[in-house]
Amino acid sequence: MKKQKTKFFGTPRLLRVFARHKLGIVGLIALSAFIAIAIFAPVLVRFDPYTMDLEHAFLPAGSGGHLLGTDNFGRDTLSRLAYGARISLLIGIVVVALAAVVGTILGLLSGYYGGWVDFTVMRLVEVFYSFPFLILVIAVMAILGPSIFNVMWVLGLVHWPSYARLVRAQVLSLKNIEYIQAARTTGCGDARILFRHIMPNTITPIIVQATLGIPGAILSSAALGFLGFGVQQPTPEWGSMVNEGKDYILLNSNMILWPGLCIFLVVLSFNFIGDALRDTLDPRLSKQLK
Amino acid sequence: MGKYLARRILTTIPVLVGISFIVFALVSFAPGDSISLMLSNETVNVENVEKLKTELGLDRPWYIQYVMYMEKLLKGDMGRSVQFSRPVAEMIGEKIGNTFKLTIFSCLVSLCIAIPLGVLAAARRRSVFDYSATAIALVGVSMPSFYLGLLLILFFGLKLGWLPIRGLPTYDSTLFKQIRFLILPSITLGSSMAGILTRLTRATMIEALGQDFARTARAKGQSEIGVLFKHAFPNAFLPILTTFGMQFGSLLGGAVIIETIFSLPGLGMLAMNAVKFRDLPLIQGTVLIFAVCFVAVMLIVDILYVIIDPRIRYD
Fold this sequence. Notes:
CATH topology of the domain at 86-284 in chain A: MetI-like fold
CATH superfamily of the largest domain in chain B: MetI-like
Strand content of chain B: under 5%
Radius of gyration of chain B: 24 Å
Order of helices and strands of chain B: HHHHHHHHHHHH
CATH class of the largest domain in chain B: Mainly Alpha
GO biological process, one term (chain A): transmembrane transport
CATH architecture of the largest domain in chain B: Orthogonal Bundle
Number of helices of chain B: 12
Protein name (chain A): Putative D,D-dipeptide transport system permease protein DdpC
Largest interface: A-B, 42 and 52 residues
Structural class of chain A: mainly alpha
CATH architecture of the domain at 86-284 in chain A: Orthogonal Bundle
Shape of chain A: elongated
CATH class of the domain at 86-284 in chain A: Mainly Alpha
Largest sheet of chain B: none
Keywords (chain A): Cell membrane, Membrane, Transmembrane, Transmembrane helix, Transport
Transmembrane segments (chain A): 23-45, 87-113, 133-158, 206-231, 256-277
Pfam families (chain A): BPD_transp_1, OppC_N
Distance between the termini of chain A: 32 Å
Oligomer: heterodimer
Number of strands of chain A: 0
Number of helices of chain A: 13
Largest sheet of chain A: none
Helix content of chain A: over 70%
């Protein structure tokens, strides 16, 4: 598997192809900045994101050392945004990782064994696809109670079907190729064939799908936060910050402008990177669109 | 064709059963006791609780409860709302029309942006149209809909005062008045679909324009407009239709957010209300109706597919 990885990412040609995507590079730089802010948030900001100071609520940007002003409780907006980057990035990555693992395993089993396994998994996929997923997630969150942990696993469980479909299609086209038969004749068991011989070949599309899936996960978790069913106050989460700010939209529009802009920029940079990755790893498509 | 249609309609049955089971499980396996919630306003005594449990069949095993649930559901009985003590089906019936209006308008908005822009972008590569198509596509898919909604409210509603930002006028008001109330919500809800479809229209049109039939059409002297709309677009249309159908689900999901922001009395707001008060029968009912609407749209798209392109026969 290590060899495969170097094959996909180590060759300078692919790096050069990726580098040709200016937007991909822009996305990469912007995302690195957000990741750095998330990691070094305690060092970068002057104020604690949780400390309330009601005397200094709704300060405009720049006054009293608060670069982006303060919110309705007098908390520093910039600090809350910086700490919020941690939450959004974490949720996006964990949700997609969970969905990709569950989807990949079910897709591998479904494509490889066929029969009733395939039938069951595919019907499950169809059922999950037919829910407008945000509604299902809100209902589940309402019943389980909102918390960051629940947000992650519920969103993860809702997003697995697209990975399962993708992997299943790959497995179907791979499983009758000669090298798999060769592996079988040399006495490899099913598990070895699946994970050593088939799975490495499905990694590329999974990576592309995951990169394009993270922004979706961030958007849904922000939407949940906005509706009040995601990460709860006082945790600084961008979606719930917009929710708090919407009541003061005319009084202090900064409260919605900045967190919303952060969500937009993070999602946009993931989309830039995802597009560039897809074009790099799927040259057939990129040639057509050039 | 009849055979295909019959089979396609039959395949929705296991999906509908799966949906009904998930909706049932959502409430039945939920932690917490739904009975104590229902009785919270009355004096709770053990006798009352036991009586209600037997009445609702809650003392039976879950599979029997599911069969009971299905029996009632097939008769159109979705239970009674705890919060309003009214039949859920009746409440959904009152609100569903507004959600339909909102989603249909949003679809129109996104198609009116996506198709002309995508076609122009493909026809004039690297032109202003092409770049604005790419920009709209990226902004559309990256913008959180609640953020866009609030921005539109702030600028067009509050600062400029051009458009109404809350609620819907009554049914008997003029069409023009109703449309005015729907403009901002529809733009907000349709923006993400517009982004996705613009991008797809551009890509499929580029592919179609590069095919042999497009070259042949040009060679025989067909005008460029003719090549675009008579030859390329019909070929590009099928993937657009498929994606449209699949995106309709997220449009319905987005309706919850948009109806909340713009205070539109629709199914989404009803669902949010139910969820806030943990009104379990109403949660079940609204989730179920949303899913059934989506399944119906997917079915219609698949049927349109065969009508539009007679070459397609699924075996």
